[in-house]
Specification:
six-stranded mixed β-sheet, five-stranded antiparallel β-sheet, alpha+beta, 15 strands, globular
Length: 257
Amino acid sequence: MPGNEKEIAKYLVKNKSKVSLRHLGIVTSIGAPNPSIAGFREINSASDVDKYLSSEDSRKKADIYINGEGVSLKQAGATFSYNRMQRANLLEVFTLLKFANPEAALARIDLEVRMFHDNKLDRRNRPWRDLFSESEFKSLSKFLMMDGAPNVGFSLHPAKFILEAPVCGISQENLDIFTFEEYFNKYCDNFKIAIRRQWVGQASKSEHGRAVGLAGKPENAPWVFSTVVGKPRTGWRPGFSVANRKTVYFLMIEKES
């Protein structure tokens, strides 16, 4: 969910019965996903938005419900369509999505990560066509953006539509809503597979913890390196042995502007 999800929800609540959206018509109902069961609770005020709308639960794909339909909220312009995809989950996801050769798809990504680590690639944002067929990437993107997550499977709150809005100055004129097919067709050339890294031993407690977690899974081993490449912005943890530092990789799906 983008950083402006609450602003979008508050705008819709404030302008209920005034805003009309393609595919959904006049907005008459706004809901927040229930945390542990399918369905939603109605939100009718800005305080309801602050109380019930959460960006912490990665299991839900619908950030809000509009007129009873699950909607994923996306910030206009450059944004991340999916964050922190780890290797340990990919073979299972590729198999679930019926890739023709899941092992070969994973091997292509392994090679790309290795080449990036060895400084043999010019950019960390890679064309998805270098790694997937169009049908594979489309299927993967739909699953991650609309249907589920690698570590939890299919969501209790899938999204049927994508609502795009700017960071500020939200209005009827700059809201746009898409089916996944429409969104993909519009932005397919803007999507990139973004190779990102973090370090075991970096100063940030949260990032160090995530790196330790990733490095601890045997299936992630091809994306974990004892050679340190790059440097964390916040520096290194005091007292942490240099010999125990590691470079750990994960992937994002990024939409460039």
